[in-house]
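From the methods appendix. Each design record in this collection lists the tokenized structure first, followed by the designed amino acid sequence. Records were kept in a plain field format so they could be parsed without special tools. The example shown here is representative of the layout used throughout.

RECORD:
FOLD TOKENS (632 positions):
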């Protein structure tokens, strides 16, 4: 652990580990299979990144989100740690290069998407790697009891066949007791294991549910009443812009954030928010992964997400610095109807799912027996229009095929263009003389990149086109021409989601969807929605208690700071206290007007105080005459 502490200080600059981190890392370094459950902001990544640097060899990290993989690789590289990522849609030459570097021990952390882990190429290269550790991020994805089940996760344990003695570490922020057991079983944890779970309780985070007649007005009041940095989660991209504009009109600085923004714009808005130049981020759930901002004072949900796991994770981004913070959920009865309607749509009849699979093969012009491991640019709107599906219906059918293990829909990603010169510098110079119109382009590329003669380099095509004063289409046309002439190897920028065939395409008539498992997943989704509706609809128990019970903490005490606990404390006056206070005042003055009596208890609700006063009058302990109170 002394070495682990030195690594933490050298690469992260932290003087010590957070609670449970040291114990988790000690378990991993001892070679035990380890499960770490730490709440959002608890520092899960460090639990496998530090051991990766402390152990000789390569650490394999399996992660389901491309955006999260790319973000972690970027952060590791900024700390001078050699890290790479392989995911669907990459060029085969880049995948080969990255795997080779890992085989020869030149990489410390190699991130792989779960479907890439299943390929013959990956298995063969992993067999040859000096593997020291396998880390499974978002480990709840392995469980059908979990809220984000991913079938490719079920095959992660096959890595044990290639490296039987290499320990596994699984990390997640949210898991019910059933999921905790499932993770260990599906990953084939050995008898010597470590399971570490930090309580999900957040002593400084006050959970609040409000049911206003108008959400926009209520949101503005919340943000006006609570100072500091905030996140507002909404359901759609359009709503991010609408709400941000509404807040701006009220003098509250706010920016919209969603997956469809240009990468430069995302980075700019995120940077402005982290640096407190922008106070409020109005975002879809695309925002927050990997964001380290400890002083978020308020997280507001404009409507409920469809699971306690998602809500807990998003709300937990408030108050990571330990200071008092708020997680507010705005609720309307129609929100519950919306969740149930979406749940019905999300699990279409199995014959409809099969019809969608048939349409998918036609759309991609993919023959039976082909496509395994291939990634295809996929336009959901175009697909739906061509085959007469409603967009939400099509998306639900594709997700059903994903849960059955046939395909994978990647997150909406943007891959930068890549270019490598295939000729010598002298040959490139001769080419420019013959094609002078390419001179400025070539010089710009050489000036803004390094190593383009040795390896592919990334191009920001939009910025390059603007600098050269040409359209993006003309720039790409020139680069395609140079590629055809053998001067460069060029891959244009790619945007949007991709669809991956995890298995080869089969005849649609032979498509098998396990009805029992399909219905089980549907029932589990309904249970999570019912839990969220109950959380929002009822005020009969502490909000924190209700959430913690869902995650298996059945003996959690009342938090004392949520809206339910505060209402218990402030809305139910103690009659003896009220009587004693009035008696003391009436000893100094003969009588007291009723409004003045009510003002003696500013932390209590006036109707409740008035009711107690009437009870005291009824019992003969006070006398009421002409709206004044006096002692008998």
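DESIGN:
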């Amino acid at each position: 652990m002394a070495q682990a502490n030195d690594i933490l200080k050298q690469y992260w600059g932290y003087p010590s580990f957070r609670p449970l981190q040291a114990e988790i890392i000690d378990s991993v370094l001892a070679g035990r299979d380890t499960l770490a459950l730490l709440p959002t902001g608890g520092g899960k990544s460090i639990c496998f990144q530090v051991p990766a640097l402390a152990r000789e060899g390569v650490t394999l990290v399996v992660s389901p989100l491309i955006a999260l993989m790319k973000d972690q690789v970027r952060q590791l590289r900024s700390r001078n740690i050699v890290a790479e990522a392989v995911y669907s849609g990459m060029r085969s030459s880049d995948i080969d290069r990255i795997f080779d570097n890992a085989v020869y021990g030149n990489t410390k952390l190699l991130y792989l998407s779960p479907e890439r882990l299943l390929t013959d190429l990956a298995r063969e290269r992993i067999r040859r790697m000096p593997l020291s550790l396998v880390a499974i991020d978002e480990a709840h994805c392995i469980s059908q009891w979990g809220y984000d089940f991913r079938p490719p996760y079920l095959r992660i344990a096959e890595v044990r066949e290639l490296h039987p003695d290499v320990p596994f570490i699984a990390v997640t922020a949210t898991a019910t007791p059933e999921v905790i057991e499932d993770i260990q079983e599906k990953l084939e944890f050995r008898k010597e294991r470590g399971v570490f779970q930090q309580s999900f309780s957040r002593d400084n985070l006050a959970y609040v549910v409000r049911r206003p007649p108008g959400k926009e007005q209520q949101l503005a009041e919340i943000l006006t009443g609570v100072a500091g940095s905030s996140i507002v989660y909404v359901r759609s991209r359009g709503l991010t812009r609408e709400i941000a504009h509404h807040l701006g009109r009220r003098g509250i600085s706010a920016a919209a954030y969603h997956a469809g923004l240009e990468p430069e714009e995302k980075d700019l808005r995120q940077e402005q928010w982290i640096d407190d130049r922008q106070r409020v981020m109005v975002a879809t759930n695309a925002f927050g992964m990997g964001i380290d901002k400890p002083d978020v004072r308020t997280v507001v949900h404009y409507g409920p997400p469809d699971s306690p796991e998602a809500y807990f994770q998003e709300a937990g981004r408030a108050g990571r610095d330990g200071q008092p913070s708020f997680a507010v959920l705005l609720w309307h009865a129609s929100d519950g109807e919306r969740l149930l309607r979406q749940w019905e749509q999300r699990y279409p009849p199995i014959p409809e799912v099969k019809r969608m699979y048939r349409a998918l093969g036609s759309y991609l012009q993919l023959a039976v027996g082909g496509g395994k491991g291939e990634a295809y640019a996929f336009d959901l709107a175009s697909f739906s229009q061509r085959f007469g599906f409603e967009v939400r219906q099509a998306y639900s059918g594709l997700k059903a095929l994903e849960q059955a293990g046939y395909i994978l829909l990647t997150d909406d990603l943007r891959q930068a263009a890549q270019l490598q010169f295939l000729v010598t510098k002298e040959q490139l110079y001769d080419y420019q003389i013959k094609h002078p119109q390419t001179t400025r382009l070539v010089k710009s590329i050489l000036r803004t990149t390094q190593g383009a003669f040795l390896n592919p380099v990334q191009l920001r095509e939009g910025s390059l086109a603007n600098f050269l004063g040409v359209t993006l289409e003309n720039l790409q046309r020139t680069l395609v021409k140079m590629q055809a002439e053998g001067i460069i190897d060029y891959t244009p920028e790619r945007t949007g989601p991709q669809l991956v065939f995890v298995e080869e395409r089969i005849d649609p008539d032979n498509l098998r969807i396990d009805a029992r498992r399909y219905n089980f997943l549907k029932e589990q989704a309904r249970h999570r929605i019912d839990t969220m509706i109950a959380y929002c609809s009822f005020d009969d128990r502490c909000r924190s208690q209700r959430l913690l019970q869902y995650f298996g903490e059945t003996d959690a005490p009342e938090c004392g700071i949520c809206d339910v606990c505060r209402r218990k404390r402030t809305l139910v006056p103690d009659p003896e206290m009220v009587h004693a206070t009035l008696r003391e005042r009436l000893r100094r003055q003969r009588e007291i007007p009723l409004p003045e009596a009510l003002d003696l208890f500013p932390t209590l609700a006036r109707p409740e105080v008035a009711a107690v006063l009437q009870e005291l009058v009824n019992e003969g302990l006070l006398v009421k005459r002409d709206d004044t109170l006096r002692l008998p």
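APPENDIX NOTE: The mean pLDDT is 89.
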